Amino acid sequence: MKRTRNKAAGTIDLYGRYVVPSYGRSPLVVVRGKGSWVWDDRGRRYLDFFPGYAVSGLGHCHPRVVAAVRKQAGTLLHLPNIYYIPLQARLAELIVEHAFPGKCFFCNSGAEANEGMIKLARKYSFDKYGKGRGTILTLNNSFHGRTSATLAATGQDFYHQYFFPFPDGFRHADADMESIQSVSGHDVCAVMVELVQGEGGVLPLQRDFVHALAVLCAERDWLLLVDEVQTGVGRTGSLFVFQQYGILPDVVSFAKGIGGGLPLGGFLANERCRKVLSPGTHASTFGGNPICTAAALAVLDILDEDMLAAVKEKGNYLRRAISDMGSPYVAGVRGMGLMIGISIRGISNKELAGLLVKEGLLCLTAGQDMLRLLPPLTITKAELDEGLEIMRRVMLPEGQMAFGYEGV
Ligand code: PLP
Description:
This protein has 408 residues and is α/β, with parallel strands linked by helices. 35% of the residues lie in helices and 18% in strands. Helix 2 (63-73) runs antiparallel to helix 9. Strand 2 (37-40) and strand 3 (45-48) form a beta hairpin. It binds pyridoxal-5'-phosphate.
């Protein structure tokens, strides 16, 4: 196909004409990334405190991920899942070894991974109990994706607009046992939770609640589905955050960071689910293809114990520094590892994010009043300090800078 080339039109102009406007975009044309940094089309660099929504968890273009992808690109780009893909087998083995005994399914994204979990839970129940037990309980304030089913699963009214009819089979509860009991019933087959709600405002669930929920699931033979699309792959300082909660889910979904920048998602289901998705019941054309699994193997190879320990340390450092900054805009700081939420007052979170971008720091918003930071797990102390310096410039009133946080 011959490429039309309208040299006068810039990227933003072309977007205005040809790309569906479903995203609220910053006026930033990013052309290159390396480690914790990206560069725009004018050569200005920005410190990226949420590389690709946590997709580039090891920073942009990690050299070992790039090398693995380059090597695989010259060997085999794609293979359908009706054949055996050696790298996919190795990746599944690695995830099982570091999580819990079971089997992996691979797909392309977080929503697709959660769709797979939902299907698996319903079929697990159908195989055992027959029809009428397909309801999945999820939590208010959760976020599980943008497909019709994962929107219905998401416990926020904002996402339940326009696209009617949404699929049935989800009920929402608050993160306490009384609320869970009030929506439970004979039609329930599973509970799906994010242990740290990301998009909803970086809210870690209470440990006691999570334990009580796991007990209830075991008693009722409900599957405990944990959505680790955002929390997984080292983000909170362990491969999966459930490992810090001391519970064992029946199924855990993952995506984002696993592909090191390439589209890969999936779930790991425990032994009791191993026969549920029999041939022909579930599939994904690109899922776990050789390129993405080569990248994921490099990611997991890099993510060792030392790195996970450093994620916790760097997270503590960043959270403490933000709290101690004394900014009138900061009402509180929370999170786990390098998944950090700053509760904002006195200015809208979107406006503040915009001011930070202008000063060269990229960050995200969450919920109504949160700034969300998901810095690369590989970020250095010096880069964290650079980010903190930008935050001080923007978030402290003039004159207070000199008395600002001095570091630990
Ligand atoms: N689940 C959680 C917890 C997420 O944070 C997201 C995306 O932000 C998703 C699911 C959806 O993932 P994707 O955008 O890859 O479909």
